[in-house]
Amino acid sequence: MVISSIDLKDGHVVQLKNGKDLVLQRDDADALINDFNFYGDVAVIDLDAAMGHTDLKGNTVNTPLLKSLLRKGNVRTGGGVRSVKRARELVSLGAEKVIVGSAAFNKEAKGQDDILNKDFLQELCGAIGKQRVIISVDSVNGKIAVHGWKETLDIPLVAAAKAAEQYCSELLWTCVEKEGCMQGTNMQAAKELRGAVKCKVVVAGGVSTVQEIAELEKLGCDVQLGMALYTNKVSLKDSFMECLDWEKVGGMVPVIAQSVNGQVLMMGYANREAFEKTFATKKLTFWSRTRNVLWTKGETSGHFLEVQKLRVDCDRDTVLATVVPHGGVCHTGSFSCFGAEADEASSLERLYQTISERFANPKPGSYTATLDDKRVREKVMEEAGELCEAPDREEAVWEAADLLYFVSVLMYKEKVSWKDVLDELDRRHKEK
């Protein structure tokens, strides 16, 4: 699959040729990550950090933008990660995986046994977990390149990869001499690298056609793509479809629809035509095997499924669609095809959404709509006290529900979502 790259330099989104020459510059990072994340993971790379242009705290001019992007998709990040503390911070801020490069290698290596900075990597895996670690084995003419690709070590690519895989879940290989040139990558080197290790391999540098992406997919390699996307030489929708195992599924891919809150809603099948319509309309579309026709969920009922993102499983034969349902999903009227409930399962997000609707479109007699800033704060303090004084479990449940309701109203008024709060709790958990 394709991992879209957002490279940051001097506070802008950029693409460089061979890691040096500026080819293009943009300032629409939010729009880019929204588009890229629809089709797969996104890599956000701080090039200034990779080149050592940091302050005493390890920050760069890109840091505010980087932080804002980390929770806007399934993001992996790298660039100048040279300490365990920095890696932990990035994970706490929302990074799902952290890419380390220069810090992973021993510049004074004299043989196979001391290629890596093992103490650092062991501490890193202990701190954030091996599954969150990606080691970058970028190379120039077959030798490992470090420090923003300005320096080459006398360490062969394959030897470095074999040594590194015990400390990571993935290897990211950029063929530096091909980077940004749009002339194809070094396919022979990719084959050798793939054959040398068992962990996941992501190839970057020079990939410029959907056919090349499909060839690398057949080798068992993902592709991290930059220049080809920004110049519209490769489209993510075409790449997404070419990476699916159509032969294995007989031309019909199972698609599971899941709400943004994690509730499984339905399952159907999609062929190429159905995916094309989903991409174009952002409404989940299937192929009816009984009627032998294309159908968009909700085209008669109006209860369509608004697609937020698509993810392919590890075998490339099933797709998970994260959707926002507009009405009941099942033909029986139930919210999900896997349950009889008429409505979405209760959650803090559902409560918050209901409160939002009450303020946006007040119904006659709505208590929520009458709550002004002063009154809701009084109720939060009142309900907190009653919860603390609850004499038994049943009363505690009742008072806790009241408190959460009024807290949600106050949060809405302050423009704070439950996702914001849960993200902060997640950050604190991962920071320790």
Secondary structure blueprint with pairings:
Blueprint: E1 2-9, E2 12-17, E3 21-26, H1 29-39, E4 42-46, H2 47-50, H3 63-69, E5 75-78, H4 84-92, E6 97-100, H5 118-128, E7 133-136, E8 139-140, E9 143-146, E10 151-156, H6 157-164, E11 170-174, H7 187-196, E12 200-204, H8 210-219, E13 221-225, H9 227-230, H10 236-242, H11 246-249, E14 253-259, E15 264-270, H12 272-281, E16 285-288, E17 293-296, E18 305-312, E19 319-325, H13 348-360, H14 373-388, H15 393-413, H16 418-431
Write a structural description.
Helices cover 37% and strands 23% of the residues. The model has no long low-confidence stretch (mean pLDDT 92). It has 16 helices and 19 strands. The chain starts with a strand and ends with a helix. The protein has helices at 29-39, 47-50, 63-69, 84-92, 118-128, 157-164, 187-196, 210-219, 227-230, 236-242, 246-249, 272-281, 348-360, 373-388, 393-413, 418-431; strands spanning 2-9, 12-17, 21-26, 42-46, 75-78, 97-100, 133-136, 139-140, 143-146, 151-156, 170-174, 200-204, 221-225, 253-259, 264-270, 285-288, 293-296, 305-312, 319-325. With 432 residues, the chain is an alpha/beta fold. α13 crosses α15 (393-413) and α14 (373-388) packs antiparallel against α15. β6, α5 and β7 (133-136) form a beta-alpha-beta unit. The chain is globular and about 75 Å long. The strands form 4 sheets. It has an 8-stranded parallel barrel, surrounded by 7 helices.
Number of helices: 16
Biggest sheet strand order reads 1-4-5-6-7-11-12-13
Rg, Å, rounded: 25 Å
Determine the fraction of residues in helical runs and give it as a percent range: 25-40%
Strand content: 15-25%
Span of the ends, CA to CA: 33 Å
* Shape assignment: globular
Q: How many individual β-strands?
A: 19
